[in-house]
């Protein structure tokens, strides 16, 4: 039973585990990934926020800025 090297069975199982987990990770990433581009998400709150900032300045528009952030988070963006 010559000089063939033996491999640990746990070392053989490890690549199989990684292959099984990768599709699961990809599935989770796809579920949490936004379906739209950030520039196209929440056009209503974006318009109100932008108009307010142009007319009154950023400090006066905190409620619209926060409303837009909440909308983007609801769409799946990490803001």
Automatic annotation (TrEMBL):
Annotated region (Disordered) at 1-29
Q: Which domain of life is it from?
A: Eukaryota
Composition-biased stretches, type Polar residues, lie in: 1-21
Q: Where in the cell is it found?
A: Mitochondrion intermembrane space
Q: Which residues form a coiled coil?
A: none
Alphabetically list the UniProt keywords: Chaperone, Copper, Disulfide bond, Metal-binding, Mitochondrion
Q: Which InterPro entries match?
A: Cys_alpha_HP_mot_SF, Cyt_c_oxidase_Cu-chaperone
Residues recorded as binding Cu cation, renumbered to this chain, are 39-40
Q: What is its main location?
A: mitochondrion
Instruction: Reply yes or no: does the keyword Endoplasmic reticulum apply.
Output: no
Q: Which GO terms describe its cellular component?
A: mitochondrial intermembrane space
- Which PANTHER family does this one have? CYTOCHROME C OXIDASE COPPER CHAPERONE (PTHR16719)
Q: Which family does it belong to?
A: Belongs to the COX17 family.
Spell out the protein name for this chain.
Cytochrome c oxidase copper chaperone
């Amino acid at each position: 039973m010559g000089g063939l090297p033996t491999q640990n069975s746990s070392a053989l199982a490890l690549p199989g585990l990684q292959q099984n987990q990768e599709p699961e990770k990809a599935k989770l990433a796809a579920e949490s990934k936004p379906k739209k581009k950030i520039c196209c998400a929440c056009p209503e709150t974006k318009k109100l926020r932008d108009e307010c900032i142009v007319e009154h300045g950023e400090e006066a528009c905190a409620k619209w800025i926060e409303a837009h952030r909440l909308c983007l988070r609801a769409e799946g963006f990490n803001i």
